[in-house]
Write a structure and sequence with these properties.
6 strands, two-stranded antiparallel ribbon, alpha+beta, 181 residues
Length: 181
């Protein structure tokens, strides 16, 4: 996908984020392929780090290592999810679709909330962390930290659309985008 797709881990403990070039966004098939490519790359990284994703049988819940539960996602996909609160909070808003989130929440008895930099289309942002959802469209929104320091740290990496939405939600101005002549 060349420069049209960027999949990177912004912080050591956070899963990758996907950014699709705006020119590609209207093309659902290409965007879907970009997501698949990003996730396959991320799965390869997970394997390198010793955290493979295990498929499982959602009908009987079998096939998961100890400490993990079988959660059913979309289109017949089911995978083992780590129910430790820290790992669950890291995985759910970045990696999982709405169906997998709902199943994992039920199986693990935990609530999935968006973290700084995660999507907030299928989950709400963690208000306890002071995060707000900045929506750029009906299909994308991102959790942003409106505290002055975090906002300025993050905003220079955002798309123009996200900067506009976040500035409105946070009543702030991104100084990383201001250029002095």
């Amino acid at each position: 996908f060349g420069s049209s797709c960027v999949c990177s881990a912004p912080r050591r403990s956070a899963p990758p984020r996907l950014k699709v070039h705006p020119a590609m966004a209207p093309t659902t098939r290409i965007a879907t392929l970009a997501v698949v490519a990003c996730l396959l790359g991320a799965l390869a990284e997970e394997r390198k780090m010793g955290r493979p994703v295990h498929r499982c049988n959602p009908e009987d819940g079998m096939g998961c290592p100890e400490g993990q539960e079988c959660a059913a996602g979309s289109h017949g996909w089911a995978q083992c999810v780590d129910c430790s609160p820290e790992q669950f909070a890291s995985d759910c808003p970045f990696w999982w679709d709405g169906a997998l989130i709902a199943s994992a929440e039920q199986r693990c008895d935990l609530k999935c909330v968006g973290q700084r930099g995660s999507q907030c289309v299928s989950v709400a942002c963690d208000e306890e962390l002071g995060l707000t959802c900045a929506r750029t469209s009906e299909s994308w929104g991102q959790c942003v930290d409106c505290s002055a320091e975090a906002f300025q740290e993050d905003c220079g990496h955002w798309s123009e659309e996200l900067v506009v939405a976040a500035e409105k939600e946070c009543s702030a101005t991104c100084h990383a985008r201001i250029r002095l002549l």
